TrEMBL record:
<comment type="similarity">
    <text>Belongs to the NnrD/CARKD family.</text>
</comment>
<feature type="binding site">
    <location>
        <position position="332"/>
    </location>
    <ligand>
        <name>(6S)-NADPHX</name>
    </ligand>
</feature>
<dbReference type="GO" id="GO:0046496">
    <property type="term" value="P:nicotinamide nucleotide metabolic process"/>
</dbReference>
<feature type="binding site">
    <location>
        <begin position="434"/>
        <end position="438"/>
    </location>
    <ligand>
        <name>AMP</name>
    </ligand>
</feature>
<dbReference type="Pfam" id="PF03853">
    <property type="entry name" value="YjeF_N"/>
</dbReference>
<keyword id="KW-0547">Nucleotide-binding</keyword>
<feature type="binding site">
    <location>
        <position position="392"/>
    </location>
    <ligand>
        <name>(6S)-NADPHX</name>
    </ligand>
</feature>
<dbReference type="GO" id="GO:0046872">
    <property type="term" value="F:metal ion binding"/>
</dbReference>
<comment type="similarity">
    <text>In the N-terminal section; belongs to the NnrE/AIBP family.</text>
</comment>
<dbReference type="InterPro" id="IPR000631">
    <property type="entry name" value="CARKD"/>
</dbReference>
<protein>
    <recommendedName>
        <fullName>ADP-dependent (S)-NAD(P)H-hydrate dehydratase</fullName>
        <ecNumber>4.2.1.136</ecNumber>
    </recommendedName>
</protein>
<feature type="region of interest" description="Disordered">
    <location>
        <begin position="505"/>
        <end position="537"/>
    </location>
</feature>
<dbReference type="GO" id="GO:0110051">
    <property type="term" value="P:metabolite repair"/>
</dbReference>
<dbReference type="GO" id="GO:0052856">
    <property type="term" value="F:NAD(P)HX epimerase activity"/>
</dbReference>
<feature type="domain" description="YjeF C-terminal">
    <location>
        <begin position="247"/>
        <end position="555"/>
    </location>
</feature>
<dbReference type="InterPro" id="IPR029056">
    <property type="entry name" value="Ribokinase-like"/>
</dbReference>
<feature type="binding site">
    <location>
        <position position="464"/>
    </location>
    <ligand>
        <name>(6S)-NADPHX</name>
    </ligand>
</feature>
Length: 558
């Protein structure tokens, strides 16, 4: 599990050490750890450290202080270091600095850290734009295989006979604590930027101090940070994290698995209301995903002709009503009246039917529900039963409008954590906001941020599959029903479902090849630049729904 802390909590944890006069000691430790990572990256990616070129961008605060001390360590190891005062940069010098940045084997970004306002000063942003352009010219395609690299780019055994600039793909960008331009706490960058210039410096590796900052787990900071390495500098944080991320290796400990003595009813029954005459496919995808997830039984309440379509595609499905341990409502525009009726019934059960002596029986445990797509359009206030809502930004925008706090889709995309949290408060539900980084918020408590996915997952039907996985997890995880007190556990299951959904896209083999298994699967995909050599291809929602079974088998060690 990755844990991200607010910049304020990290500062508060450092405060007693600073009061004891240990500021310089902390900075020395941070800089030493940073330099070690830089030297290792040079050895691994540029064939060595001695004689290689580094540009160290240093800002006005302590982040710049870390970078300046690390620059000294690098110089003593024989690296040719150019130290740049990043805020003293003149706009006229930006193109030349951009070229020098492109020519370096190593760039250290020590401009801003946890004390920063998001965004980059204009002259620096212009230099970064020139740098990107020069790198782009040298790297026509990010996936250029080594054999296609022109001979002039290849390094001889002694690093001789080189063309100007590092070989494509060998430059390493190391961020100090957090990529400059990104907010340490919410991961956002400047939202008012209209000049088209870069707003942050994207890194291959971020060396962060004490603990991960929440902004490293959240979009777009998460992608900007590349791989994150935490350096222990002797600062202990005893407050709760603000953001959590489940990693593939965590899933076996989180996911509900059947007891030895289980039978199909005690494994959890999921009631599904999905699909319509226009969209029967959504019901098939949600049903397939729930069955691939290993639900004990799936009851489908959908009307004809979607019902027959589901029964033909998934013969295990049981048609009609009956007892269920969880509900999945909404994919494929099923009848609104039917969804309303089911939600009213769960709400009435949750409120506690009046006992025979007339007293209320509050807080009854009821089957939790996952509400997707058309079901979201029926909500206009706090939910009286425990639920997971699964909007994308557009659906969340409509929902927030009905809840009296309108927000445009673009506003939500620029600050997704804030709006996911607010929607969770207003609906008293778990809100899973889909995106490149999927966020799972509860009315109060840490947010989960999951990013196993790939842009290929943004395809019709993908969300129906996620609903099926979440529904199956709720059915297995809440055999005795749930109340609002269970929202944190429901959020954990929804986050795990999002991770499994994303991993299934990375690991499914539509051509029938065997899926990745065991250890390789549990290590999970890498984000950002690291992902370059392991990309999934196009994803079909139908294949995804099937692949969930192999992903889970691999993760659970089956
Ligand atoms: N504390 C500790 O114990 C340890 C801390 N450590 C390190 O310190 C880092 C935090 O350092 P920090 O607090 O000095 O803040 P930092 O991010 O360097 O920047 C502040 C400066 O930047 C300026 N500025 C900001 N944004 C700007 C913008 N958009 N555009 C222009 N200017 C902007 C800002 O100006 P101002 O806001 O005052 O006008 C101020 O001058 C932390 O990330 C870690 O690396 C480690 O050494 C371990 C021990
Ligand atoms: K930085």
């Amino acid at each position: 599990m990755r844990r991200g802390y607010t910049a304020a909590d990290v500062r508060a944890a450092e405060r007693p050490l600073l009061d004891r006069g240990l500021g310089e000691t902390l900075m020395a430790r941070a800089a030493y750890a940073l330099a070690q990572v830089c030297l290792r990256e040079l050895r691994e990616h540029a064939g060595g450290a001695y004689g290689r070129r580094a540009v160290v961008l240093a800002g006005p605060g302590n982040n710049g202080g870390d970078a300046r001390i690390a620059a000294g360590h690098l110089a003593r190891a024989g690296v040719g270091v150019e130290l740049v005062d990043a805020l003293a940069l003149d706009a006229a010098d930006a193109p030349a600095l951009g070229r020098r940045l492109a020519d370096a084997e190593l760039v250290v970004d020590g401009v801003f850290g946890t004390g920063a306002r998001p965004g980059l000063p204009a002259a620096l942003a212009s230099a970064v734009a020139h740098w990107r352009e020069a790198r782009g010219q040298r790297e026509p395609g990010r996936n250029t295989p080594a054999a296609d690299v022109p001979a002039g780019h290849r390094r001889g055994p002694e690093g001789t006979a080189r063309r100007r600039g590092p070989r494509p793909g060998t430059q390493r960008v190391i961020a100090v604590d957090i990529p400059s331009g990104v907010d340490g706490t919410d991961g956002t960058t400047r939202s008012d930027a209209a000049d088209g210039l870069p707003e942050y410096i994207a890194a291959d590796v971020t060396v962060t101090f004490a603990e991960e900052k929440a902004g490293l787990l959240l979009p777009p900071g998460r992608v900007a940070a590349g791989r994150v390495e935490v350096a222990d500098i002797g600062v202990e944080i005893d407050t709760a994290p603000d953001v959590l991320s489940l990693e593939p290796a965590d899933l076996a400990g989180v996911w509900p698995t059947p007891a030895q003595t289980a039978h199909k009813y005690s494994r959890g029954v999921l009631g599904l209301l999905a699909g319509s005459a226009e969209y029967p496919g959504a019901a098939i995808l949600t049903a397939t995903a729930a069955l691939s997830t290993g639900v004990g039984m799936l009851r489908v309440l959908t009307a004809e002709p979607a019902r027959t379509a589901v029964l033909q595609a998934c013969p295990e499905t049981v048609p009609g009503e009956g007892r269920v341990q969880a509900w999945a409502l909404g994919p494929g525009a099923p009848e609104p009246e039917r969804m309303q009726a089911i939600m009213h019934q769960i709400a009435a059960d949750a409120a506690g039917s009046t006992a025979q002596d007339g007293s209320a029986r509050p807080g009854s445990r009821v089957p939790p529900a996952v509400l997707d797509a058309a079901a979201l359009d029926l909500l206009d206030g706090p939910l009286a039963f425990p639920a997971v809502l699964t909007p994308h930004a557009g659906e969340l925008s409509r929902l927030l409008g009905r809840l009296g706090e309108p927000a445009a889709r673009e506003e939500i995309e620029a600050a997704p954590v804030r709006y996911a949290r607010r929607a969770a408060e207003l609906t008293a539900a778990v809100v899973l906001l889909k995106g490149a980084v999927t966020l799972v918020a509860v009315p109060s408590g840490p947010v989960f941020a999951q990013s196993a996915g790939t842009p290929w997952l943004a395809t019709a039907g993908s969300g129906d599959v996620l609903t099926g996985i979440i529904g199956a997890a709720l059915a297995a995880g809440f055999l005795e029903g749930a109340s609002h007190e269970d929202l944190p556990r429901m959020a954990e299951l929804a986050a795990a479902a999002a991770e499994i959904h994303g991993l299934s896209a990375w690991h499914h083999h539509p051509d029938g090849g065997s899926p990745r298994r065991g250890r390789e699967l549990r290590q999970g995909p890498q984000l950002g630049h690291e992902a370059g050599h392991r990309r999934p291809g196009p994803v079909r929602a139908r294949d995804l729904a099937w692949a969930v079974r192999d992903t889970l088998s691999g993760l659970l060690g089956a």
